[in-house]
Amino acid sequence: MGRCRSERNPVCRSAPPGARDRVPRRAARFALTHPSAPAPICWINPASPPAASAERIEGNVASSEGWSPVQRLRTYEQVMHQIEERILSGELSAGDHLPSERDLALLLGVSRPSLRESLRVLEALGVLDIRRGGGPDGGAVLLSQPGDGLVNLLRLQFAIGHFTHRDLLETRIALETWSCAEAASRASKEDLDHLDEILAKMDAAGISTTEWNSLDTEFHVAIAASTGNAFMSQLMSAMRLAIQRQMIDAYARLDDWRAVADSVRSEHRAILDALIARDAAAASARVQEHIRSFYSNDRLGDFATPL
Prior knowledge:
about 5% strand; 3 domains
C-alpha cells in the first residue's frame, strides 16, 4: 500500500508504517491549502472503521486506553527487521547465503542503495560477511563465528565514557575469577601448554609494550576459552580488545614499565601453576589479586582504580 499523504490525519498517523492507504491527491492538496478544514478520513481497512471508533466514547473524547506510540522506521531498518525475524525464526542460520542484491531488493521492494545500507550495518554488527564476486562463495553470508561487532561497540562506548574504569575493574574480576575456577577443572593439557607458551613469549628480551599487551590479552582470553564456554570467551576477548589501546597508553606512562611487567609476569605464572594443580580456589584468588594489584598502581594515571 502507498503511504497516506495527509500527515494531519490522526488516524493516518496512528497506523503502522506500510498499512495506510493513499489519500487521493486532490484531497491531500486540499488539506494543504485549507488547513482549517477537517482532515480527510483514511481507513486502514476499507471494510471496517479504525480501531479507535470501536472504543467507548465519553462525551466527545475517546478512551485513552489501547493507544501506543507510532514508530517511524527508515527503509534500511525495515529491511534489517525482516532479516532479523528470519534469523530468530530459524529460517536463516549460520552459513546461509542471502539472495543476490538484485533479487533481495526486488523481494523487499526497496532500492539497492537502501539494501546495501542495511547489509553494511549487519556486517558492522558482526552478523554478515559481504563477499565480493558471484558464485557460491560470493554475496552476503551469515557468519558462523562471532564477528567484531561486540568488540567495536565496547571500544567506542568505553572511549566515549559510557563505562567507568571501576565498571571495567569489577566486571573483569567477576568474569576472570569464574573463568579461572572453571578452567582449573575443564582446561585440557593442550590448553595449559598453550598458556605456558604465551608466558614464554612474554619473557622475551626486548619485547615492546604493544607486543606485551597483545600477549597479556591473549593469556587472559585463552583462560576463558579453556573453560569451553564460547560466550564467556567472546565476552572476555571483546572486553580486553576494547581497552587494549588504553592499556598500552597506561604502560607507556610508567617510568619503568618493565619492572611492572616483571611483577605481572610473576603473577601470571602463579595463576598458571594453580590451574596446573587443578586448584580452583587458588586460581580465582590469584587472578583477583593480580587484577586489583595492577589497577591500584597510582602511576597508571586515570587508569588506576583502587577498590
